[in-house]
Write the structure tokens for this entry.
Amino acid sequence: MKKVAEMASYFHFRKNVKMKNGQAWGFDLIIALVIFLGGLILFYFYAINFPSTEEDVFRGLKYESELVADSLLSEGSPDNWDLNDIQQIGVVSNGKINESKLEMFYNLALSDYAKSKALFNINDDYYVYFNNPLNIGGELVSGIGMPAQNENNLVRVSRVVVYRNNIISLNVYVWN
Amino acid sequence: MELRGEKMLKKKRGLFFSADALIALFIIFSVLLIAYSLTRMVRNETEVHSDIIDSLSNVKVGESGNLYVKSLISQGKIVNLNNSLLEQIGEFYVTDIDGARDLAEAVLEELDFTNNVGLWYGSTLVFSKNDSAFENSLDVDVSRQSISGIKEGDSVTGFSARAFLTSSVLSKYFYFGGYVGDGNLSQEISYDGDITSASVELVIDKNFDIYVNENYEGSYVGSENEFTPVNYDISTGLFQSGDNLVEFKGNNLHITGGFIKISYQSEVEFSQSERYNFPGIIGLINLYDGFYVSGDINAINILLHFDNEFTNTFFNIGNVSIYNDSAGGEVSLNFDNSQLMSLLDYNSLSRKNVPLRVGMENVSYLGSVQNIDVFSVTDLSASMNQQCPTCSGGTKLIDLAKDANKVFVNTVLNNSLNRVGLVGYKREAFEEDYHALSNDNISLIQKVDDWNPQAGSCICCGINRAIQGLLEESDDSKFRSMVVMGDGKPTETCSEQGTGSADMDAIEAARVACEEHGFIVDSVGFGIGVDENVMQQIAEKGCGTYYFSEINDLSDIYKEIAETIFTEYIGQTIVSSGGNILTSLYSDSYIEFDYSQPSGIGGLIVTLEKQFDDAYSGVFNIPEDAEIIEAKIASYSGPRWTHSTAINSIEFYNLDDYGKDYIFLGDPYIIQIPTELIIKGDNNISLTTATSPNNITEGSPFNKIIYTFSKEAKAFAPISLTAQGCIWHIQFEDNNEIEINVPSSYSGTINCYYNETHPTPMYDNNDAFQVAVFNILEELDFDNDNKVDVPFSEQDLQISLEQITGIPFVWSTEVQARRWV
């Protein structure tokens, strides 16, 4: 009898162990998901809502203005881009402003300003200003892009480039 | 145990996914943060200065739309249309710096940017647009580019210049002897040309006046001592081409070395002297000099013109008496070659420094002795009572000492101006054995006779007593010394020295005598029992000479010492004993040499002077590309004789070669260095002076080496872009500075510098004139100290220009665009 009672107790123990094993794994997984998703959500809200400092804003605008200036003073991508295959805006060929590329950039900024911003990979508004008006497609143009209006912050970056064998200043303003 | 293990396993499984989730979040955030910061960091600062360099490089002048550029092209100022703007500004930078600035301004003036930006070519700022000065910048970014130009083609003209120095300005020295006196002195000065400067450097004993060609020139102050020369510039207005007479007038003057130096412009080439000219002396003829003939002597002729009716006049060359007689008045004596050949060995005179002496025999002998005060310090210890082992008749050592002292007294007192004192020492120096300084030889000899030896030997007592006597009874106008004799070993000590050792006290007393009072202590070791070591050290510390005497030689030794002292303290100066003696040696007297002279001396003749580093030695340098012509040592030996000279440890002159009785030997002020002993580079010179073969000492720190060499003094500029010239500011080795417009027609404002304040000489290496002049200045700066070693005038520096067509040449420089905040 004693032996039968011991065997019954053994089988009861085995059953309890199996049940507790399955509950522990499931509970742990739930907690892990809560932690991970909670972390992502917190990061999202932080990124969206946390206010930037003035210096951060300035650095951001400066970064973007230099990005625009560097991009413009490159050949662009591909080298001989047009509005159909453009991946990066650049208006220089052989160290001088390529007037065809400049005109295409001008037209792009007029027709699809948002696309031009996207191609420059910036979020804020930009305006490219020349110290003397340039003749683009028969039209005297002193700047390309969105001139600043009621801006809160504005950053200017100056570069020097050759246009029609004259050395001119190219100023990039980025503002918000 | 098993149940417990199962429980632990369950707990670990429960934390597994939670930990993974935390780690995953951590990794995601880290990657985002790093990527964000890297993205921000890869951005460069604005590159406006690089843009300027790039833009200037990318525009050719022929394509430029700039109106100013076009106007330069139309004016023909820009020729090469393929030049970039950067190159064209560079070309203007080397040809016309103002043009470079104008062009840069024209092409960059309309740029509009907020940065401080400047454009430099080499070290020259060509363009800038700035709010704050570059000198105040806190942070600077630089963009560099090297540019060079090769101009070629028939229409291109380059320039090459040749700069050279002419030898039209010559320097000539007229030397005095080692001693020229005593009276009014004169020197003949001969030259052919236009004199540009004249100066004197000499040691002269008193204030003096200078007369040139019998016209008063000026009054001057004499030397502060007999070894320090004075230097004066004298007016050239009284000189004339041809023969001139420069006279030094004063109160019984003598010159112990010096020279008159003139510079003059002449077409006559450098030549070595064939004649020795005697100085003029009106007073007492007393000349110590020398000569050097730099070739093999074939013949000699002498004219000796003098006036002496009082005594014999003697004239010695080396140790050979050429003349010694009473002329009885003014005479001109000719010694022709046949006479002189019989007296002189020409071979022994060739290429040798030969002393030359002209004097008045009796006057100079009697009057030339300097006063001497000397003590004889004699050992009167008991050992002096011993019998002389080699003597007869019971003679004792003290008797020999007494005889020696008597000889000494009589010898020294040959000159009545000298004095002798006596000290005898036993266990102390008793007053009964002392005799004060006196020229009374009877009294002195009586004291010697009264001496009686007793026990004890206190050498230090004897020396101390002699010191006391010299201090109390003599003064520093006299030559003061003592002779200390000992026959054994010191036994007594002295409280003055207090070393506790009788030996050391004696040696220390001698040291005090010499070092603290300037007295010479000679010592005599007498007999075989003497402690020679102590006596030698007494002489050594007493700056004197040690003598050892055998028993029977003591009198001879004392006589020798007396004569040596007598000779040592003879100077070259005559002390006139009174009377109105007036004699003359005339400056038209000469010695003429016929000898084989080297020929073909070409190039620039450079004569330099280099002062000794100290009283014994000096160094002079011969450039590698120079040919030595001659080198001389100028010795300011004062009243002493120049005794010996050596170059690079090789002796080439020793007065003792001509004898030991210096008073009859000459004393050259100029000792010529045999050219075969001179090496390229540094040459070390040493020199001693003496009043006798046993009294050798230093010379003057103002001694100098005067050396002459020839050198090609010309330099070229490579073919250069331009040849404008500049105003050169040149510093010479003597720290004089001159400003020279090179070429002489240059009227611009560019300054070039070759001086100490510009360690890196300032000039434009694209300017042919400037490069040529710099190259020749560098050649003439032998010690590379940015000071030119060869003085010259504006007229000496000649420069010629060649225009070269069709040969490519290169200019180059570095361009820097700098941005600063």
